[in-house]
Every structure is written in C-alpha cells, then in structure tokens.
Amino acid sequence: MSVKIRLQRHGKKGKPFFHIVVADSRARRDGRFIEKLGTYNPITNPATIELNVDSAVQWLNNGAQPTDTARAILSYKGALYKKHLQGGVAKGAFDEAEAEKRFNAWVEAKDAKVQGKVEGLATAKADAKKAALEAEVKVNEARVAAAAQAEADAKAAEEAANAPAEEVVAEATEGEAPAAETEENTEA
Fold first, then answer.
1. Pairing between strand 3-12 and 65-66?
2. What percent of the chain lies above the pLDDT cut of 90?
3. Strand, coil or helix: what is 17?
4. For the chain, how big is the Rg over CA atoms in Å?
5. In sequence order, which residues have a C-beta less than 8 Å from that of residue 37 and are 6 or more positions away?
6. What gap in Å lies between CA 168 and CA 188, rounded to an integer?
7. Where is the composition biased (Low complexity) (predicted)?
8. 60 CB contacts (<8 Å, ≥6 apart)?
C-alpha cells in the first residue's frame, strides 16, 4: 500500500483550512485517511501550522511520501530536519543527546524568527493605523478650515451686497425727492 502525507481540505469557499493527514494514495483527496498529523491554516499571517512532529517523522521513516505542499510544511516545522538528525545518529556521526540538542536549538531559532515576523506585522499594522488617523485628522482640519473660509466669504459677500443696496436706496430716495418737488411746483 502506497502511503502519502497530504493535505485534506476543509473550510468554506474562499476560506480554506487543511488537515495534514496520512492517507492511502488511492483514496480521494478529502476521503478516508489513516492518521491525522495536524492542521494548516493558510489564511492567517504567518500561516498557522500545528503538527505532531514525532508522528510525522515515524511515518516518513516508514516510507510515507509527502506531497509538495506537505513537504514544505514538514520542512517548516522541522520534521524533515529531525529525520535527517536521526539518520546521523543511525550512522554514528553523533549521539541521540546531540541530535536532540541541535533540533531544540533549531526550533528555538525558528520560533524567534516567526515571532519577529508576527511583531513586525503588528508594528506595521499599528503604524498604518496611526498614519490613517493622522491623515483623517488633517482632512478634518482642512474641512473645518474650508467651512470657516466659506462662511467668512458668505458673510463678506452678504455685507458687500447689503452695502451697495443701501447706497442705491439712498440715491433713489434723493432722486425721488426733487421729482416730488417738481410735481408740487407744476401743480401750483
């Protein structure tokens, strides 16, 4: 029986979520499996991967063939490195304690790198939010200044419109007064 380590798709359309499983290569993609090794969520940044490394190494030693994506996930989580170190122990290059020490050092370095990326993303998100808030404050200040300017212009235009109207009314009343006098003179 040919055994593969592969992904089994779950989740809804546009929101994939995968189980990492050991399955017979002839079984359907989302069909029957032998053992579930972990989960993989590509939606999060960085992708969330939970994997039983020891069980994955055991299946790799038994001859299970990972698919391309599953191989990348196993490499990312250190299952392939642990298998490599176990091969070194089997050859006598170093002992089991040294292999465990090297694997733990690698895992710590990898976790620090992932944590650095998470913190970098959080910082970038906070900076983007702060920049958007500052831009919004500037837009609001510009809007308030434009409204104040428009109000001042409207008030000045109203005063300008009222001032000539008063002068025209005054001129018109002065012009009517002599005409009324001339009418009185003609009647007399």
1. parallel
2. 65
3. strand
4. 41
5. 5, 20, 21, 22, 51, 52, 55, 56, 59
6. 31
7. 159-180
8. 5, 66, 74, 79, 80, 83
d(CA 155, CA 160): 9
Chain position carrying tokens 């001339």:
182
The CA-based dihedral angle spanning residues 105, 107, 110, 115, taken in that order and rounded to the nearest 10 degrees: -110
Residue 116 exposure: Cα atoms within 13 Å on the Cβ side: 6
- Residue 61, amino acid: N
Q: What is the mean pLDDT of residues 97-121?
A: 93
**Core vs surface per residue 98-125: b (16+ CB within 10 A) or e:** ebeebbeeeeeeeeeeeeeeeeeeeeee
34-56 residue pLDDT tens: 999 999 999 998 899 999 999 99
The count of structural domains within the chain is: 1
Host domain of residue 43: 3-93
Number of other residues whose CB lies within 10 A of the CB of residue 76: 16
Domain at 45, CATH number: 3.30.1320.10
Q: Per the domain annotation, does 135 fall within a domain? A: no
This prediction's pTM: 0.68
The Cα 96–Cα 98 span in angstroms is 5
Q: Do residues 37 and 59 make contact, with C-beta atoms less than 8 angstroms apart?
A: yes
